[in-house]
Amino acid sequence: MTRVLVTNDDGIDSPGIACLATAVRDAGLEVLLAAPIAEASGSSASITAHEKDGRVYLEERELPDLPAVETYAVAAPPALITLIATRGAFGEPPELVLSGINRGANTGHAILHSGTVGAALTGAANGRPALAVSLDVGLAPAGTPHWESSARFVRDLIPVLRRVTVPVVLNLNTPDIPADEVRGLRHASLASFGMVQTNFEVDSGYVRMEVVDETSLHEPGTDAALLIEGYATVTAISPIFEVSQVDLDGVLERVNP
Predict the structure, then answer these.
(1) Hey, is 231 helix, strand or coil?
(2) For 222, which of 41, 68, 88, 135 is 20 to 30 Å away at the CA?
(3) pLDDT higher for 198 or 70?
């Protein structure tokens, strides 16, 4: 049976991770659930942990709706959890990594800063195809998030992960509306930034940061724009790549005559 690491950056008690783990279990896969003890949003692929005597602490848990699922709360961000999972920290290493369901969209080039995507990228960088899953609840969410709207597409994308021949990250975003109102799943390009923009006010002795919606700046065909139109979006991302277009030979010849 395929063993899957399910993690997130919202923390072990987030209802989003329970929904994701349930979707993976119901797909007939073995679930290993390991997530931060506390929220680790915006941690990207950080591997800085809360250590004592060089040890990263963890504790076994049992989630109410997932009593038979192997579960750990870890004093670390999700990327480090993913890294140590691939090294056998929780027993047999996983074959796939699923991260989420995040409370908030992860779109555009801003995914660089996402702990949800950072965990998936860490999985792929260590040879495991991965899926990052996010629900666009917006900056002022109202009511209970529609986690199942994301879970339905997770079930569709798991077979894709199992078929790929190279480690890759699929980045899934879903609008926060009932599942039967989602207009479908679309392949999307990454927006220039994301669903939100970050504004800065600089003054003597401080910098003030404000995150705001910028719906007017969304480019057609991108993940951010399609989410607003009511579509779920998926984008394939390479974890680490070398840029070959930059000519370094001339520089090396000057440095090493």
Answers:
(1) coil
(2) 41
(3) 70
Instruction: Answer yes or no: is 202 within a domain.
Output: no
What would the pLDDT profile of 212-233 be if each residue is shown by its tens digit? 555 545 689 999 999 999 999 9
- Total tally of structural domains belonging to the chain: 1
Both tokens of 197, joined, read 């923009």
Q: Answer yes or no: are the C-beta atoms of 106 and 121 closer than 8 Å.
A: no
Is residue 235 within 8 Å of 223, Cβ to Cβ?
A: yes
Bond before 177 cis per omega within 30 degrees: no
Q: How far apart are CA 235 and CA 135, in angstroms?
A: 15
Confidence at 211, pLDDT banded by 50, 70, 90? low
Q: Which domain holds residue 240?
A: 3-191+220-255
Residue 2: its pLDDT value, please? 96
Amino acid 216: pLDDT: 43
Residue 90 lies in a domain: yes
**Which CATH number belongs to the domain containing residue 251 in this structure?**
3.40.1210.10
Provide the b/e sequence for 113-129 (b: ≥16 CB within 10 Å): bbbbbbbbbbbbbbebb
